[in-house]
Amino acid sequence: MWDTVNKVIDFLANWFEVIGFAISIITAIKVFLIDRKIQNLSNSYLYHQRIGEHLKEFKNTSSILSSQLGNFSVNLKQIRLTVAQCEQNCRNLRAKSKRQKLSNLSIVIKAAVSIRKNRLDQGQKGGIFQKYKSPVTEKQIDTFYEKLALLIAEIEHLIQDNKKSFK
Amino acid sequence: MIYEKVTQFVLKLIKLTKSGELQWTSAVPTNRTLVDDGFIADKLYDSTISGKYLRVYRYRTKDYEDDYNFIWIERVSLQLIDIAGNTEFEYKYEHSFNDLYAAIREQVSGADQFIDEILAIPID
């Protein structure tokens, strides 16, 4: 009699152990997934909080550039500096926006890099490779300004959308 | 209308304004009220180019976050107007309008020349 009872209890205990183990494995997987989701949500929230600051900087760059473009040849050095600062801002934003793709971000970076790699003017002296580079043209800066305007519009649109979705 | 084309157009206006080839005049609006409780926040700036009349002004308008909540936002409007000042076409807003507005105000106010004049005054 006691033998049978012991066997039944042993059998049930083994099964409960297996079920308990399975439940803890499932819970661990769920916690891992939920934790990842929370992390992504938190990153996304922080990103949307900070993107406003980047937008301010882009707007500031746009107004500085438009002012400097009034006299391209005189302000070329400052223009290149403004473009370089904007490129840095773009790269910072790109590092934060791994999941949220801004299609115009890479375009602006590409335009900035091409300006940075070009020479200041035809008469500039430099290293052996310097003479093979083309000089920075006004058209390049104009294009950069246009791409920046597109990026600003894209970010403004994204912020507008997020305002609605975070409500 | 292609977005980039409008930006190119605005950039051209900025350059022409900066070089003084495009002259702007300012006027105080007789009626500041706009649709949806918006209002003109400052002066109106008019100019003529290629037989067309341009008007630029800054305005404040309500930006609705949902059906009830809104915040006030500031925008710049760029329009083609007729000789009587009626709007014929309003370009869709983009940020470069703000840069144009700043260039126009700098020209009309003569802020830069004013600085030059003051800096030219000798100090005994």
Summarize the structure in words.
The complex is a heterodimer of chains A (167) and B (124). In chain A, helix 1 (2-68) runs antiparallel to helix 2. Chain A is rod-shaped. The longest helix of chain A is centred in the N-terminal third of the chain and has 67 residues, at 2-68. Chain A has 167 residues and is mainly alpha-helical. Chain A has a domain at 51-165. Chain A is built from 4 helices and no strands. By secondary structure, chain B is an alpha+beta fold. Chain B has one domain (25-115). Chain B has helices at 3-19, 96-109, 111-120; strands at residues 25-27, 39-49, 52-64, 70-81, 87-90. The termini of chain B are far apart. The mean pLDDT of chain B is 91. Classes of the chains: A mainly alpha (167), B alpha+beta (124). The A-B interface holds A 59, 62-63, 66-67, 69-71, 142, 145-146, 149-150, 152-153, 156, 163-164, 167 and B 3-4, 7-8, 11, 14-15, 18-19, 65-66, 94-96, 98-100, 102-103.
List keywords for this structure.
heterodimer; A: about 170 residues; mainly alpha; 4 helices; rod-shaped; B: about 120 residues; alpha+beta; five-stranded antiparallel sheet; 3 helices; about 35% helix; globular
